[in-house]
Design a protein that fits this description.
With 367 residues, this protein is α+β, with helices and mostly antiparallel strands. The chain has helices at residues 3-32, 39-60, 68-83, 91-95, 107-117, 119-137, 142-210, 213-232, 246-250, 271-292, 324-330, 335-346; strands spanning 243-245, 258-261, 268-270, 298-304, 308-315, 350-355, 359-366. A hairpin with a 3-residue loop joins strand 6 (350-355) and strand 7 (359-366).
Length: 367
Amino acid sequence: MGLVGLEVVLWRAVAVYRFVALGYAAVLMVNNYHSYTRPWLGWTVLAVMAVWSIVATYTYGRADLRGWPLLIADLLVTMGCLIASHWVVTEASLRRGSATLPMVWVAAVVAAWSFSGGRWRGVIAALFISGADLWLRGSVTMATVNATVLLLLTGFILGYVVSLALDAEEQLQRATKLEAATKERERLARGIHDSVLQVLAIISKRGAELGGEAAELGRLAGEQEVTLRALVSVAPPPTASGQADLRERLRPFASAQVQIASPATVVPLPAEVADELAAAVNSALDNVRVHGGPQTRAWVLLEDEGDSVTVTIRDNGPGFPNGRLAQAAQEGRLGVAQSIVGRLRDIGGSASVTSHDGTEVELRVPR
């Protein structure tokens, strides 16, 4: 049952409660109408409750109508039916704690407010209903205290439980989608591994053996094999707490030209942060491949410093002159500014790029 399905079930439960409570109010009316000062008004209120129960069932059943206008209208109708007891039930009976005209029917609006906005919204509705009931009774009695406490508990507990249920349902949906996507990626990875990657590996090996132009072709095939292997590699999914091991996110970048050094223990980070940090590392390595040439090597160092995580990418390429990055940004080439510096800034981290006997990129993310 999906998230939408759960909401439908909850609102159907409120609708069922309205009609069951309406039936109970009708039974009380049949038993007590002879003692009412204005029986005709009592029957009128009962008819209004019946009509509103039908209207509320239809409107709350549509997600596009469950806004403040409906919630306020529901509260006003409920309070009106409750306050109408003042002109139907004798004052002495009300002071003794006798039943009002709607009785437990008033709890439906508290449940509706709780389902629509959580426990605190349910508490607000309960306070309005309790205030109207206190005005009817004219004084604080054990009956008014019990009614108020029950309504407040209903609003708070229902809102809390519903919030937990909806959150759990949403997390289950995300986990189901992630599992399906992971399985599909694993299936594609197996197919690519059995065909494309093996062909590229053979070309790379044979090209190196033949030498000459074939060696260059073999080198290019080897680079593409590494890139494709990184793309189809399946990173472990986040844990139940949403944490991911950054080491596993960086492992696919290792190749003959890229060496990765990382701690022996897990380096946990929120999954979204780990993904963005790994993407920034990949961008830095792309720059090494594009600007450094085929002989350039790179070293990636991952350090877990407790309160922060640092990834350093160094290469032995030609580097770049001072001011080159600023000039590139002014010319509209924002590769480093957006894919590396911008990524780290968006996740609350920092990035620095320096050039001296090669290029060094330092990425730091606080915990």
